[in-house]
């Protein structure tokens, strides 16, 4: 399958207050965000003309900017409106939405306090993150080489561009070996997440999920936990040693891109997508199509 480069597409991108033709939405090569990863972003999905949990994503982008010591130049309410305008101008009703804010090119160096903060919003067609047929069977994960950093070593509660460097490296290595993704541990050796999704593990009908103290408490993660509680499932949020991995019967991951995706294998351990994984996958798909935000 040939790839369509993201810099050579038809359409419109909202950039610093106005719509710009897709191919003309550019930044300078000496942009601080490129050299020092001073950028924050969101990944969101629109279903049937409405962006799921739009306000939560907008608020998190602003919070991420604050953590990264800059102010996103619009309010959450304004950002909600811009995102919808971008989707409608591009004629999209089911799509992926990407707001991003970054430090500009006025200063190039570690310190860049006087740089302009830029904001862009793009949207494009993006179907299932994983092959739909494989998704129901359970995707294959390997172990990542890198661990998530400690909260004292990096701004782990911001959705910051620089934190994804080790995710890209880990996913590339996984795909080269025939896997769909990789499991990342935290710096203490506890199970953390996949490269771009949170993780849930099932044992004896109880759902376990890692405490998000060294990684993002995902918006999809929070939604799925609410859905699980509605079904009466018990959820235990705790630090999970990697040595427990083989004791679980079902595993699934969650995220705006991944949605709810069962896992069939992590390295030497095998799992079978069961009632809990598959029911929550269906519940989530049904919920976002009905736009029951916060349900």
Task: Give a description of the structure.
By secondary structure, the protein is α+β, with helices and mostly antiparallel strands. It has 2 domains: 12-124, D-amino Acid Aminotransferase, Chain A, domain 1; 132-290, D-amino Acid Aminotransferase, subunit A, domain 2 (D-amino Acid Aminotransferase, Chain A, domain 2). Helices cover 27% and strands 27% of the residues. It has 7 helices and 16 strands. It has helices spanning 32-36, 54-67, 76-89, 132-137, 165-176, 219-230, 275-290; strands at residues 12-15, 18-21, 39-41, 44-47, 50-51, 95-103, 117-124, 139-143, 181-185, 191-194, 198-203, 206-210, 235-238, 250-255, 259-266, 269-270. Strands 8, 9, 10, 11, 12, 13, 14, 15 and 16 form a 9-stranded mixed sheet that branches. Strands 1, 2, 3, 4, 5, 6 and 7 form a 7-stranded antiparallel sheet that branches. Strand 12 (206-210), helix 6 and strand 13 (235-238) form a beta-alpha-beta unit. Helix 2 (54-67) crosses helix 3 (76-89) and helix 6 packs across helix 7.
Can you give keywords for this protein?
alpha+beta; D-amino Acid Aminotransferase, Chain A, domain 1; seven-stranded antiparallel β-sheet; D-amino Acid Aminotransferase, Chain A, domain 2
Helices and strands in order:
Blueprint: E1 12-15, E2 18-21, H1 32-36, E3 39-41, E4 44-47, E5 50-51, H2 54-67, H3 76-89, E6 95-103, E7 117-124, H4 132-137, E8 139-143, H5 165-176, E9 181-185, E10 191-194, E11 198-203, E12 206-210, H6 219-230, E13 235-238, E14 250-255, E15 259-266, E16 269-270, H7 275-290
Parallel strand pairs: 8-9, 8-15, 12-13
Antiparallel strand pairs: 1-2, 1-7, 3-6, 4-5, 4-6, 6-7, 9-10, 11-12, 11-14, 14-15, 15-16
């Amino acid at each position: 399958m040939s790839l369509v480069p993201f810099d050579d597409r038809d359409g419109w991108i909202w950039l610093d207050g106005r719509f710009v033709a897709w191919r003309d939405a550019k930044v300078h090569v000496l942009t601080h965000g490129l050299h020092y990863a001073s950028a924050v972003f969101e990944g969101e999905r629109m279903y049937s003309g409405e962006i799921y949990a739009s306000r939560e994503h907008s608020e998190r982008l602003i919070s991420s900017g604050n953590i990264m010591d800059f102010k996103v130049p619009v309010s959450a309410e304004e950002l909600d409106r811009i995102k919808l305008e971008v989707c409608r101008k591009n004629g999209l009703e089911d799509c992926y939405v990407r707001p991003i804010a970054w430090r500009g090119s006025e200063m190039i160096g570690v310190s860049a306090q006087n740089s302009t903060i830029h904001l862009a919003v793009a949207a494009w067609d993006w179907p299932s993150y994983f092959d739909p047929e494989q998704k129901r069977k359970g995707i294959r994960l390997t172990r990542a080489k890198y661990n998530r950093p400690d909260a004292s070593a990096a701004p782990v509660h911001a959705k910051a561009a620089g934190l994804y460097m080790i995710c890209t490296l880990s996913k590339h290595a996984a795909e080269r070996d025939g896997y769909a993704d990789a499991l990342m541990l935290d710096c203490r050796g506890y199970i953390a997440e996949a490269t771009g999704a949170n993780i849930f593990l099932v044992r004896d009908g109880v759902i376990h999920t890692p405490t998000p103290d060294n990684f993002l408490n995902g918006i999809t993660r929070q939604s799925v936990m609410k859905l699980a509680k509605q079904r009466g499932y018990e959820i235990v949020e705790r630090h999970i040693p990697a040595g427990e991995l083989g004791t679980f019967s079902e595993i699934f991951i969650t995220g705006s891109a991944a949605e709810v995706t069962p896992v069939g294998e992590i390295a030497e351990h095998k799992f079978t997508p069961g009632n809990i994984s598959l029911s929550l996958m269906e519940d989530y798909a049904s919920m976002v199509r009905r736009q029951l935000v916060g349900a």
